[in-house]
User: Which sequence fits this backbone?
């Protein structure tokens, strides 16, 4: 335990509740199996001697709860959306310095900052609703509707050509031909 505190006698670091929770969970994590390192451990492992040491900082909590693989999957969505949003904000002609996209990206960064420094943000379903809403706004803002329209136009032209090529004029009623 003293090694986890770097042999410190500083009262601030010894009394700090977040730090003591992190040290307690890291000690349990050090004694866990390789499978638990990969996939995380259950909530009951946070209870030591009748005291719950659930981590407040979300990134640490997600890492210990979900392990290496779960943490990578969970955080990769946020990293992907940040990279996609920043890339579109600076390098895509349609979205260059788009105010709305900039606001969505700042909101996402603030939420991730609040998750680390405030805690209990990424692990709560009521907050995840707002995070998913911001991620959907970033997705909509970075989605290229021009490319989608061009692809759909090519598909429609192909369908019309295919439909008219196989078209049998004898199947049309005489009334429709007269029109």
Assistant:
């Amino acid at each position: 335990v003293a090694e986890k505190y770097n042999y410190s006698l500083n009262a601030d670091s010894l009394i700090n509740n977040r730090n003591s929770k992190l040290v307690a969970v890291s000690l349990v994590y050090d004694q866990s199996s390789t499978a638990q390192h990969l996939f995380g451990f259950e909530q009951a492992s946070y209870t030591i001697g009748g005291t719950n040491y659930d981590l407040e900082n979300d990134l640490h909590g997600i890492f210990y709860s979900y392990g290496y693989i779960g943490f990578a999957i969970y955080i990769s969505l946020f990293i992907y959306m940040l990279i996609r949003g920043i890339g579109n904000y600076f390098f895509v002609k349609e979205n260059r310095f788009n105010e709305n996209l900039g606001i969505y990206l700042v909101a996402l960064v603030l939420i991730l900052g609040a998750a680390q420094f405030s805690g209990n943000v990424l692990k709560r379903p009521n907050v995840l609703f707002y995070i998913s809403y911001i991620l959907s706004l970033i997705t909509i803002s970075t989605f290229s509707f021009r490319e989608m329209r061009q692809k759909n136009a090519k598909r429609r032209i192909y369908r019309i050509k295919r439909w008219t090529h196989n078209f049998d004029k004898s199947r049309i009623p005489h009334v429709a031909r007269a029109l």
Remarks:
- The chain has a mean pLDDT of 77.
- The CA atoms of residues 44 and 50 lie 10 Å apart.
- The chain is about 70% helix and 0% strand.
